[in-house]
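Hi F.,

I've been meaning to write this up properly since the lab meeting, where we talked about keeping a consistent format for the predictions we share between groups. The idea is simple: the sequence comes first, exactly as it goes in, then the structure tokens exactly as they come out, then a line or two of notes. No screenshots and no reformatting. I'm using this chain as the first example so we have something concrete to point to.
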Amino acid sequence: QVQLAESGGGLVQAGGSLRLSCAASGRTLAGYAMGWFRRRPENEREFVASVNWSGVRTIYADSVKGRFTIARDNAEEMVSLQMNSLKPEDTAVYYCASRTEPLFSGASSAAISYKTWGQGTQVTVSS
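Output, unedited:
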């Protein structure tokens, strides 16, 4: 069973950048779509970005489009989220997630599509 571990969170000033990474162990990520979600204070979990199994197709939430970039390296079993022009409203715990079916799965914004989740990493953006 795959396990996911996020890293790269921290405190940054508004307008700054952070790069989150998600490393997999226990099973390959290759062949399955990956996603990033976040939970802001006093809010429900929300979709941020997703990449399909090959890395060719990506989708983003409107709130991060043009600022965040998701990418995957199947050889390294890692997925990243480059976050630029950060805003205080981006403050949240960020979670990496993997679809476990079907093989060669497409990108998805639906949390129910993802069966494996990491523990999360805190991102705090100060104004």
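Notes:
The first strand starts at residue 3 and ends at 7.
DSSP finds no helices and eleven strands in the chain.

If this format works for you, I'll send the rest the same way.

G.
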